[in-house]
């Protein structure tokens, strides 16, 4: 939708609809590249990254990833996840469906889901806390600055109630081993019923090798696709109140996405997806070389 000021000018016949559309396209281009430059560029990275920005960001290829292979061993095993019983050999977890056997081991090791990680009451507590901030954003956005999300609202939050802090502390204890520093800010992403998240790899500049997210409100299907082999695909069922943990090879070597509502199927069964909120914790990125 166009900015209200342009709509007012069109209604008052101060500018034609065609010209208003051109003005808005220029505005969107300015907004997108301003955010890209502000977020991804610093003086020491300009010579390396400016050509990529001017040529147009190409999703995961824009992000330099550490060299990770599917044989890489898990390096961020917390005390709680290490105590979890392993799935029997040859039997996929109920939340995982791999379309290629070559990635089964990597997915079982580095893509974990804990169903019913929080109770319905805890889910309501989190929703009650984030809803006022999300509603202040008024409407869902359909032109994400790097074209990764369609139909979303998002905030980053550092101040939480005591009950919510206890929930987030449990998430961090499960996702991050002792000595691994989690990011202070928690990312809250509100996805509309008609929204979806496109394939992407989270920037390694701002987050480490583990991403942990609580899924609230409605179920969804996360799809993983290997960066170099598009036939290596896995689907992950994220039920309400579940916790997912992505790390290592899955974090770096696969894009992840949330499927559209009309494409949400898991093992042939339709998943009734609607509005979805995820509360996401990440760990600190590794120190960069001077």
Concise account of the structure shown:
The protein is an alpha+beta fold and 290 residues long. 31% of the residues lie in helices and 25% in strands.
Topology at a glance:
Elements: H1 4-11, H2 17-40, H3 46-55, H4 79-82, E1 96-98, H5 104-110, E2 111-114, H6 120-135, E3 149-157, H7 162-175, E4 186-200, E5 210-216, E6 220-226, E7 233-238, E8 243-247, H8 248-253, E9 254-258, E10 265-266, E11 269-270, E12 276-282
Structure description:
- This protein is of the alpha+beta class and 290 residues long.
- It is 31% helix and 25% strand.
- The protein is built from eight helices and twelve strands.
- The protein has helices spanning 4-11, 17-40, 46-55, 79-82, 104-110, 120-135, 162-175, 248-253, and strands at residues 96-98, 111-114, 149-157, 186-200, 210-216, 220-226, 233-238, 243-247, 254-258, 265-266, 269-270, 276-282.
- The strands form two sheets. Strands 1, 2, 3, 4, 5, 6, 7, 8, 9 and 12 form a ten-stranded antiparallel sheet that branches.
- Strand 10 and strand 11 (269-270) form a beta hairpin.
- The longest helix is centred in the N-terminal third of the chain and has 24 residues, at 17-40.
- It is globular.
- The relative contact order is 0.17.
- The model is unreliable at 42-75 (pLDDT under 50).
């Amino acid at each position: 939708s166009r900015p209200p000021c342009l709509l007012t000018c069109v209604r008052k016949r101060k500018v034609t609809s065609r010209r208003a559309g051109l003005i808005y396209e220029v505005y969107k281009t300015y907004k997108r590249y301003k955010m890209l430059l502000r977020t991804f560029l610093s003086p020491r990275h300009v010579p390396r990254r400016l050509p990529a920005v001017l040529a147009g960001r190409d999703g995961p290829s824009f992000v330099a990833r550490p060299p990770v292979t599917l044989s890489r061993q898990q390096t961020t095993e917390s005390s709680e996840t290490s105590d979890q019983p392993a799935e029997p050999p040859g039997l996929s977890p109920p939340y995982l469906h791999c379309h290629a056997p070559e990635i089964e081991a990597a997915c079982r090791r580095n893509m974990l889901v804990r169903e019913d990680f929080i109770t319905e009451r805890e889910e309501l507590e989190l929703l009650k806390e984030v809803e006022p901030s999300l509603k202040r954003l008024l409407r869902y956005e359909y032109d994400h600055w790097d074209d990764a999300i369609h139909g979303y609202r998002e905030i980053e939050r550092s101040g939480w109630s005591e009950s919510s802090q206890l929930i987030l502390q449990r998430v961090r204890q499960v996702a991050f081993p002792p000595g691994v520093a989690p990011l202070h800010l928690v990312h809250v992403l509100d996805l509309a019923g008609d929204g979806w998240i496109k394939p992407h790899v989270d920037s390694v500049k701002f987050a480490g090798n583990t991403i942990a997210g609580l899924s609230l409100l409605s179920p969804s299907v996360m799809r993983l696709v290997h960066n170099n082999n598009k036939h290596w695909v896995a689907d992950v069922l994220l039920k309400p109140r579940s916790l997912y943990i992505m790390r290592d090879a899955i974090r770096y070597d696969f894009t992840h996405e949330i499927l559209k509502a009309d494409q949400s199927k898991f093992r042939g069964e339709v998943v009734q997806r609607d509005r979805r909120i995820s509360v996401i914790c990440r760990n600190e990125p590794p120190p960069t070389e001077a």
